[in-house]
Design brief:
CATH class of the largest domain: Alpha Beta
Distance between the termini: 33 Å
Number of domains: 2
Strand order of the largest sheet: 3-2-1-4-5
Helix content: 25-40%
Number of strands: 9
Structural class: alpha/beta
Largest sheet: 5 strands, parallel
Radius of gyration: 16 Å
Number of helices: 6
Shape: globular
Length: about 220
């Protein structure tokens, strides 16, 4: 089946794309929403502009749709992007990285229903520890690009998701109820390498913004 991937550049959308291809679907295009609202209810914002580099090393066309990021109104912009993907690439389905967010999944499903598209959520309700270990097993190189919950601070930016990260996240989950996969918006990620990439992306610099327990890293890639 020809599918489009709702793509943020983070671990969830990248791994969902990987699974979709593994299941035999054709990754026809990527759809990325560039939101002006840093607190968007729907869309990932740290380092979102760097998805262009990821699309390049994946060799997959990228549809970029800008939005003001107003709650609910931003869905109209997502609808425009999906409509374009159907028209230009004749897609038959949409893949998302939704894990537990009913808010996101239900709204995307509604748009898919409108255009007669299948909606795939390969990570839906997946055990978070199993998921993170699968990322490591399948050689996904992922870093943290944003943190938004106590006690996560500036020092977490740039950390790689590996065995040590999982253990530390597990301890934070027990003590502070932080979701180990960041599903509650506690942290955001960016994928530097995975089986879908022709080469690994390298960080040459980064700009850090924030205070307290809310920090973002705007990475600069080669």
């Amino acid at each position: 089946m020809k599918i489009a991937v709702l793509f943020s550049g983070g671990k969830d959308s990248c791994y969902s794309a990987y699974l979709a291809k593994k299941f035999g679907h054709e990754l026809t295009c990527l759809i990325s929403i560039f939101s002006e609202n840093k607190e968007s209810y729907m869309f990932h914002t740290p380092s979102i502009s760097k998805v262009e580099k990821q699309a390049e090393v994946m060799g997959i066309p990228l549809i970029v749709q800008k939005t003001k990021g107003k709650k609910e109104d931003e869905l109209k912009d997502l609808e425009k992007a999906i409509k374009k993907a159907k028209k230009d690439f004749e897609i038959q389905g949409i893949v998302t990285g939704a894990i537990q967010s009913v808010y996101q999944a239900s709204r995307i499903q509604k748009i898919c229903d409108k255009f007669g598209l299948e909606c795939f959520n390969p990570l839906w309700q997946k055990d978070e520890f199993e998921y993170l270990n699968e990322l490591i097993k399948n050689k996904f190189k992922i870093i943290v690009t944003g943190v938004f919950a106590y006690p996560l601070d500036k020092s977490w930016l740039g950390r790689k998701i590996g065995k040590k990260f999982i253990q530390e996240a597990k301890e934070l989950n027990k003590k502070y109820k932080i979701h180990v996969a960041g599903e509650g918006g506690e942290f955001e990620t960016f994928v530097l390498d995975c089986p879908l990439f022709k080469r690994e992306l390298k960080i040459i610099d980064s700009n850090v913004f924030g205070e307290g327990y809310s920090w973002r890293s705007e990475i600069i890639l080669n």
